[in-house]
Every structure is written in C-alpha cells, then in structure tokens.
Amino acid sequence: MSAPIPSIKAGTMSAPTNISTTGTMSAPTGVTTQRRNGGKQMFRIPFILATALSLTALPAMAQAAESANPGDTAWMLISTALVFLMMPGLALFYAGMVRAKNVLSTSMHTFAALAIIGVQWVVIGYSLAFGGEGPLIGGFGNMFLNGITPGSLEGTIPTYVFVMFQGMFAIITAALISGAVAGRMKFSSYCIFILLWSTLVYDPLAHWVWGSGGWLLEMGALDFAGGTVVHLSSGLSALLLAIFLGKRHGFPHERMAPHNLPMTLLGAGLLWFGWFGFNAGSALSAGANAGLAFATTQTAAAAGALSWLLLEWRLAGKPSALGAASGIVAGLVVVTPAAGFVTPGWALVMGLMAGAVCYGGVMLKHKLGYDDSLDAFGVHGIGGAFGAVATGIFATVGATSLLTGDLHQLWIQIVGVLAAGAYAVIVTIALLWILKKTIGLRVNHDEEIIGLDQTLHSESGYDL
C-alpha cells in the first residue's frame, strides 16, 4: 500500500485524492492547472534555498575578508621584535664609544627612552601621529589606544601590531639623540626633554609623513622607513643639544678614546640585524616590497661600511673598527627613506655615497668646534637629509625620481627635508631654552670629572 504523496502549493501541503492501484498518482479532473502551478513552485525551491544560504554566508565571508592576514601578521610581529632589539644594540653601540666612567649612564639613555616613550606612545603619541586625518596632527581620539579592539585592522594586520611597530620607531628616535650628550647631561633633564620632544616634534612629523591626511604625505614625499621622521629630526636635535650643553671638559685637547670597541661592534651588528625589521617591516606586509627593502638594506649597509673603511684607509692611513661600525650605520641611515623605492643596484650606489658623506659629516665637528660626542648629527642628521634627497634621485620602484625624468619629485624631497628640519630645530630650541632656564641641562664640573655612572646612578659599569 502506498502512502499519499504531498504536493506543495503556496507554501501549504494537501493530500492528492486519486492514487492508482499501481501506486502512481493520477490527476483528478479540474486540477491540471494546480499541478502545473505547483510544478513551477517546486522548481523555484532550489533557487530560493540557494539564495538563502548565500545570504546567510555573506556575514561570514565579510568577516573572513576583514580578518588579519596570518603571514603579514607574523612578519610584522617579527619586525616589531627586530626593531626592539635595536634598542639594546644602540645602547651597546653608544656605550662602547664613551669612557668607562660613563658606560652605564650612556646605556641608561636608551633604556630610559624605552620606558618613557613606551608609555607616552600608548597614552598619547600614537593618537597624535596616527589617530586622525588632519594635515598637521592626528588627534586625541585614540588616547590610551581608545577605540582600538583586537579585531581592529590596519591594512592586513591587527591595529595593535601596527601600534607597537610604530612605537618602536618613536622610542629609538628619542634614544638616538643621546649620542650628542654623553658624559655631561643631567639624567632628569634628559628624561623630561625626550618626553616633550617626542610629543611635540616626533609625533607631528610622523603624522606629516605617514599619517592619514599628513601634508607631506599628500604632497607626495617619499619616506619609506624614516629618513626624515627618524634620522633627520633626531640628528638635528642632537646637534642643538650639543651646542646648548657645550663641550665635554677637556674636549678636544684631552684624549677621549672609546673604552670598549668590541662592545660598539656588537652593537653595530645588532643594529644591522634589527634594521631588517626597521626597513623591510615598513612594507607592513610579507610581500615583494618587504623582500626588496630587505635586499636594499643589506646592500647599502655593506657598501657604507666598505666606503668608510676605504676612505679612512686612504686619509688616515689605517682602517679602524670604529670606522667599520660607523660606516654600517651610515649606509643603513641613508637607505632608510629609499628602501622600498630603489633597486639593490642603486642601493649599492647610495651606500657607497653614504660612507663618504657621513664621514665628512663627522669631520665637521673638528672644523666647526662643536662636541657631538658620538656623532649623532654627523651620521643621522647628515645621513638622514642626504638619504631623503637621494630618494628623489634614485627611486624607480613604485615611484618616480630624477632618474625617470621627474624633477618635481626631487623638489618635493628637498621641501620635506627643509620643512621637517626647520620644525625640529625651532621646537627643539624652544624646549632646550626652557629647560636650561628652569632645571638646567648640564651636570656640575665635579660630577662630570668623577663620571656619571657614580654621580647620577651610584653604580659602576665594571667592578674589577
């Protein structure tokens, strides 16, 4: 016996009235039209179901499209850690170049920046640099990282990762300035200065060049990883600090040779290693642009070291370990704004030029008489300015330059250097003048002679 087979009509079910003895259905009189209409609706059911399923899947598809890219996220986490490693690298690099009595105080300049700017960046720095769309400054909407969640994205990576990556740049920029003040600046004044300087100089400059709506970004200025924002600004500010502080006691007549060059070489090696994250990480993805920046970074660093050594060998008679370390950093500084815009061949040219240009920049202190203790201005200020301008000459990847017949791009680069430099100089002078008139900048004569490790920190770098 066969069971009645339902038919569908307008969403309701009715049992048929006639079933043959063979178990098949026969159409009753007068219901042919109903069967035809019901058949049409039966054919519509798969289409309706497919459409419903597709609509149900749309939110999931949208969520998948908006989720972070695992490869890019992994690379940016690694890059952030690499840039962090540059901080102890910088501490070693600088500490090896000072006299033994100041090795800890010099290292403390970098680690103080890690603490102070590390907090400042979360509280207000990130918001000022990247938290809005104005031409000059971001805003206050992301103070304390307000409005950012674990699901927030910056491109293809979590916003939290982007925040931490950019925060490392802010930290090391402040720490670079300390190369001009070794052995004679009050620790309290230094701490207040880098806090104010990062807020009033670095954060606005970062927005100008990298922030949404920043006026240099809108103009078309090229700065892949911080030639203007990081190196030019810190180098010029370091020069002003050196001038405001005055020369170290005994400079230049007293011999002030580095006390531990192996420490400086180790620091240079760590800086070189971390710079792969600094430059290649600035691609903000694990793609081809990161690979290009990685290659140009390696090439320019090697070329910078080579040209510095050869020049020193020719002019001073012997190549030095300090020269090798300085040449490495010079090549890295100069290629930083161009890392993702030039080919390795032009990075080689820039690196070779970097060694010569920064060597000359370091020699300026002997001719002009200022005491840039660890050559922060000679390498970072001069190198940062030269690298930014050279980007307008050699950029051929994803950008145009003088090489491709675009003279206007070179002009934009020059405007960016002049504007960022002028702003950094004006604000830095104001900050230093205020601090000098209020709490003072320099330790007293006796403290300087004894050494800042003992007088400021009650410690000694070596207990032999």
TrEMBL record:
Matches recorded under InterPro entries: Ammonium/urea_transptr (IPR029020), Ammonium_transpt (IPR001905), Ammonium_transpt_CS (IPR018047), NH4_transpt_AmtB-like_dom (IPR024041)
Keyword NADP recorded: no
Keyword set, alphabetical order: Ammonia transport, Cell membrane, Membrane, Transmembrane, Transmembrane helix, Transport
Biased composition (Polar residues): 14-36
GO cellular component, one term: plasma membrane
GO molecular function: ammonium channel activity
Domain Ammonium transporter AmtB-like: start-end pairs: 74-462
Chain residue ranges for the region called Disordered: 11-36
Parts of the chain that traverse the membrane: 43-62, 74-96, 108-129, 160-183, 190-210, 222-245, 257-278, 290-310, 322-340, 346-364, 376-398, 410-435
Superkingdom per UniProt: Bacteria
Membrane topology label: Multi-pass membrane protein
Family, as annotated: Belongs to the ammonia transporter channel (TC 1.A.11.2) family.
Protein name as it appears in the record: Ammonium transporter
Native organism taxonomy: Bacteria, Pseudomonadati, Thermodesulfobacteriota, Desulfuromonadia, Desulfuromonadales
